[in-house]
Amino acid sequence: MTQQEKVTSGFEVAFGHQPDFIVRAPGRVNLIGEHTDYNDGFVLPCAIQYATLVAVSARADDKVVVSALDYDGQTDEFVLSEQIVPQENKLWANYVRGVVTELQKRGHQLKGCNLAITGNVPQGAGLSSSAALEVGIGYAFDQLCQLNIDKADIALIGQAAENNFVGCACGIMDQLISACGREQMAIGIDCRTLGLTEVSIPSGMTIMMINSNVKRGLVDSEYNTRRAQCEQAAAHFGVSHLRDVTVAVFEMKKDQLDPVVAKRAEHVVYENKRTVDAMKAFNKGDIVKISQLMAASHASMRDLFEITTKEIDYLVELIDGVLQDKGGVRMTGGGFGGCVVALVPEAMVDEISKLIEDNYQADTGLKETIYISGPMAGVDTLALEMA
Ligand code: GLA
């Protein structure tokens, strides 16, 4: 059964009629530029083929009724004209409630609706299943109520929902690429201006994502701590965000910083530069340079930002051992587990998959999952398939 068939039939079982339309919002993989987004810096993600689907129909009243197909059809229900509060025992529901709250805060007039949700973005894998859900819900209401919200604003609404309702102080990267991804293109994002630059993937290269399946604990608290440390460093340099600290200024003034804060800032300052350099290297097809930049990004996440795990480091070393300068590999996403991203010559995909299958579980006790995806388009509605 396709995802579309699943969401359509799940919707029909939950609500007894066909949906009016279906929204599809993708997850993402970040090629380079980690923990730079909330520092107003640069990132280089692309949307992937794994996505969240939301089937929608209008209701005559002002209720929102949600069926979560991946959670055994658990439901949530709330009334648009009453205050919407977080649910303590149904965390998935807070993404929907949060987006609705943020839309209302901005004065958008919403209509009641039935929603059924399913997705195949692996959860807790650093591939942004939450952002896909937020963007999917935002776009569903945009289409249902003909709000004509700019896609970048839908991303900002999703981010605000996560910041204010879910409690993770995330940046804008994940929601923005889910909203604005382009087929076959990675997108360089300037997270200060939200300017988007299309960046090509060198021909003959495949994007592999290898999920370590390390269950990510404490993610939000560690993430929020890193963000606070970056803000502390920015204040030391007398700027609003670390984006404004050049490598030269950093090197001159780093000694006066608390040593841990200095390490965090060093990661961000150099990662920004690496990301800008990577955009050029990708466009030029300079694989050797990409390889170096991705390796340096990983080492920096491991040693300075301290967000990798031993299983993730193991995967990166294993893959790097055979890939060498024929491609690049690094952890992707917020950290503390999740996925490694590898840019691999098509002809080496099988060899690398086999290498991981033969070694990872034997050496770590965890079984990997491997995904492959080229860059995909951002959120959109799907043409309804007639039964
Ligand atoms: C998570 C956040 C993003 C970004 C990355 C790290 O995915 O949601 O905003 O900060 O971590 O690059």
UniProtKB/TrEMBL annotation:
Pfam families: GalKase_gal_bdg, GHMP_kinases_C, GHMP_kinases_N
GHMP kinase N-terminal domain span: 94-181
Subcellular location: Cytoplasm
Positions contributing to substrate binding: E34, H35, T36, D37, Y223
Root EC class: transferase
Catalytic activity reported: alpha-D-galactose + ATP = alpha-D-galactose 1-phosphate + ADP + H(+)
Membrane-spanning ranges: none
Principal cellular location given in the protein's record: cytoplasm
Keyword line: ATP-binding, Carbohydrate metabolism, Cytoplasm, Galactose metabolism, Kinase, Magnesium, Metal-binding, Nucleotide-binding, Transferase
GO cellular component: cytosol
Keyword flag Transferase: yes
Database matches in InterPro entries: Galactokinase, Galactokinase_bac, Galactokinase_CS, GalKase_N, GHMP_kinase_C_dom, GHMP_kinase_C_sf, GHMP_kinase_N_dom, GHMP_knse_ATP-bd_CS
GO molecular function: ATP binding; galactokinase activity; magnesium ion binding
Domain of life: Bacteria
Gene Ontology biological-process annotations: galactose metabolic process
Enzyme Commission number(s) from the entry: 2.7.1.6
Active site positions, chain numbering: D174
Claim: rRNA-binding is one of the keywords in the record: no
Binding annotation for ATP: G124, A125, G126, L127, S128, S129, S130
Protein function: Catalyzes the transfer of the gamma-phosphate of ATP to D-galactose to form alpha-D-galactose-1-phosphate (Gal-1-P).
Cross-referenced HAMAP family: Galactokinase (MF_00246)
Name recorded for this polypeptide: Galactokinase
Organismal lineage: Bacteria, Pseudomonadati, Pseudomonadota, Gammaproteobacteria, Alteromonadales
Gene name of the record: galK
